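Could someone model phenylalanine with this protein?
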Amino acid sequence: MSDTGREEWSSTPGFILASIGSAVGIGNIWRFPYIVGSNGGGAFLIPYLISVFLFGLPLMVLEFAIGRSTGNSVASAFQSLRQRFFTVGLAIVVIVCLILSYYLVITSWVLAYALFFALNRPVDFGAFTGSYLPLAFFLLSGLAVFVTVRSGVREGIEKVARYLIPALVAILLFLVAFSLTGPGALEGIRFYLLPDYSRLADPGVWTAAFGQAFFSLSVGMGVMLTYGSYLKRGDLFRSASIIAVADMVIAILAGLMIFPLVFTAGVDPAAGVNLAFVTLPSVFMEMQFGMVLGALFFLMLFAAALTSAVSMLEVPVATLMDSYGYQRRRATLLVFAAVMLLGLPSALSYTALRFEIFGAPFLDLADYTFGTIGLIAAGLILSVVGGWYMDRTRICAEIGGCGWQQRIYMVLIRYCVPVILVITLAANLFLAAL
Ligand code: PHE
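Reply:
Sure, complex below.
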């Protein structure tokens, strides 16, 4: 605790690890590889690098700056910029809860699969989601997130990241090394990374890159803002760069493990939910040591997902504490209960009940409305409020002065980021209408 009574990270590395924990999630290990594979392979890295460093990174720095400068989470921080922005901040908090509600469902499948493999009892995805077992795992992973956040910033969030992130990297490196020795390695890498530059003419590839970059870096939702509010010192650009690079390297490595495995097994690289929960498990089941490898893979994915879910839960919890004077324990319990209820339709959509809306599982719809459209809208709000309504001198004070670099930064944050987000939002809505 600082003298202001606000919790604090124990150190800058602790803060960086927690933020990497937030950034590295299901988005890196499972979503990134198939987005690359189906959007021009290696050529996709060009729009992706541009999105990460020109748009994602500046937004992350802005979030850290708002958080640290106001010493508040998103709703109260917005309120301290302009009274009337309080509700706008709350809207972002609601979006985060909605994203968390279905993110936790996927997290719970990962947990289930880790356990099945560890017990040498892999199950078929259809059979698993044809039962009510997913609900038990949904509750279990919710509890894991609840316990972590309840333990506090330093003792919960930071500590969990300190253990899980190094473990995740170690498992990932091991799995990459293993899969690169398989006979299908070269073919897998070719499928994954062989650049098809003609795809860069497709605007859909660019909006996919923007969407993926914002989602993967956990920016635009007040998560990084909240994490920044527990930070006292340190160079924000430096921290944000480390986080962004780590996030990207882990995503690229994940592809280097997945596709060689898939091609060595000689199966079709599927997209979406099937890749992680159908194709890869079937690959593991055919392999020597497949149970161990499968267990390691899903444990790694669970570590990634848990630390991301924790960062999302912290947003509403910090809001209840900052804006409504709740104690952490009560706030966590309340938010946990609310998120479990909110997540129930998504969880039920992949059980025997098959809860569907407009012919699609509720979870898929939630992913699109909240995770894609909601996320971009929240990012837009954040960049506009932070870029235009926070005093320039105040931003400069957080990012090390008002030199030419900072001036370029302000142009990015005030004009480029909002414009890109509007375009991405419009493109996504347009694509949905087709
Ligand atoms: N970045 C996480 C991932 O890649 C997801 C996430 C999004 C977490 C937004 C927090 C906030 O899976």
